[in-house]
Amino acid sequence: MKLALTIFLLNACYITLNTFRTMLVVRRQRLWAPLLAVLEEFVYVIALAIALKNINSPVNVIAYTVGFGLGIYLGIIIEDHVALGYVNFQVTVKIDNDDPKYQQNKKLPEDLRNNGYGVTETWGYGRDGSRLILNILAPRKADRRLMELIHELAPEAFVMVNEPTQMSGGFWSKEVERRFRKVTHKEKPNS
């Protein structure tokens, strides 16, 4: 049983590292992904050697496979916690001067800016009239909070989120990061 536990833990560790490293590769982390890969392969060689040497026991095989599943879960949890990179929200809201329900959407960009987010506004036209289209770039650590804020301020908004792999220019990189930290620190004492 001790051997099965060792196989389980080693494979869970290997797959956790593998999952996290894969996410680093997708985000083009050219330094951290290869460094993590070295540690990942070290654990893999040890885990596989022990598992293959003791493959004759069904308990060891089960320990290896369950460790694999747990490793994927833990890798995702770690990556969510670290939340590297940025997300781009495209928010589309209806604007209708005759309907008070939609008039409040005109304030949405300023409300989001007051919460520390950089917002770029454009206008569009949909099937039923004018639309305000907002592009908001935010740290991934803020994506859940931003989604909740959008739903609170404009419950009928259409929101599309994607993860940019490269960015260049704009005032985003320093100014919004500073503003985001400032707003986040203000909230912490009240929590």
TrEMBL record:
Residues 19-76 form the DUF5698 domain. This is UPF0316 protein IWT5_00507. Keywords: Cell membrane, Membrane, Transmembrane, Transmembrane helix. Belongs to the UPF0316 family. It is a multi-pass membrane protein. InterPro entries: DUF2179, DUF5698, UPF0316. The keyword Transmembrane helix applies. Residues 117-169 form the DUF2179 domain. It is found in: Cell membrane. It comes from the Bacteria. The chain crosses the membrane at residues 31-52, 59-78. GO terms for cellular component: plasma membrane.
